Amino acid sequence: MDLLAYDWMVMFITLFGTMFLIGELLVNARGLFGILGFGFITVYFYSFLEPDMFAIMMFVYILGLVLVIIDGKVVNDGTLATIGGAAMIIAVGFSAPNWTAGLYSVIGVLIGGFSSLLFLKVFKRRAMWTKITLGDQMSSEMGYNSMKETYKSLIGKKGKAKTDMRPVGTIEVEGEDYSAISNGRWIYKGDEIKVTSVDGTRILVKKEDINE
After folding, report:
1. For residue 133, with 0-12 CB atoms within 10 Å meaning exposed, 13-18 middle and 19 or more buried, which class applies?
2. Cβ–Cβ < 8 Å for 169, 117
3. CA distance 167 to 199
4. Percentage of the chain exceeding pLDDT 90
5. For the chain, which terminal residue's Cβ has fewer other Cβ atoms within 10 angstroms, N or C?
6. What does the alpha-carbon distance between residue 190 and residue 164 come to, in Å, rounded to a whole number?
7. Which value, to the nearest 10 degrees, does the dihedral of the CA atoms of residues 89, 55, 41, 117 take?
8. What is this structure's pTM?
């Protein structure tokens, strides 16, 4: 019995194909998910297309997958991933033998894409995704905490504006330059200032009253 004769079966083919291929990108499955995913997708396209169209649609699908990879590893703003996802959907949708099967195949791609995220709960995340999500958190070893402490030590100290502050500009305190923001008032270059507060690396200053 030809299972692919049932339109709803193509949903599972594209679901598993997409789930394993994207899963291969997300987690370290040692290539197993890639082989499984490529196998399911190959079966799908090969079952409905002539050799020339098979090559074209496989290319469109893989290109979409590559765009998703590039977006995640290089650009990381979602634009290429969206285009890539659309290419994958178009490839499977137009390769189906009828509109019903096409709809099922698109649903399979969408469910497979989201289902691949479940692998993150079981398998080790790939290093490239760890870098993207800033797995290397700013820590004291990287000097981030010491920088914050240096900035906090500026509270109450006096200096001068090296540029006009409208309201952002550069100040000099104890021979060091810092980017700072005034407390809503314009401060002109050369004016005496006083650091009133620090929030992380954000320095808030006010114009120093010469009578103080």
Report:
1. exposed
2. no
3. 16
4. 38
5. N
6. 8
7. -50
8. 0.56
Query: Is it true that the peptide bond before 167 is cis, omega within 30 degrees of 0?
Result: yes
Compute the distance between CA of residue 193 and CA of residue 182 in angstroms, rounded to an integer: 9
- Integer Cα distance of 185 and 209 in angstroms: 13
Joined together, the tokens standing for residue 179 give 């980017």
Residue entry with tokens 């952002």: 168
Tens-digit pLDDT profile for residues 167-193:
788 999 988 889 888 876 788 889 999
Give CA–CA dist 49/162, Å, rounded: 70
d(CA 85, CA 82): 5
- The structure tokens listed for 203 are 């320095």
Number of C-beta neighbours around residue 22 at 10 A: 25
Mean of pLDDT over the chain:
82
Quote the CA–CA distance of 103 and 211 in Å, as a whole number: 77
Sign of CA dihedral 40, 43, 48, 49: positive
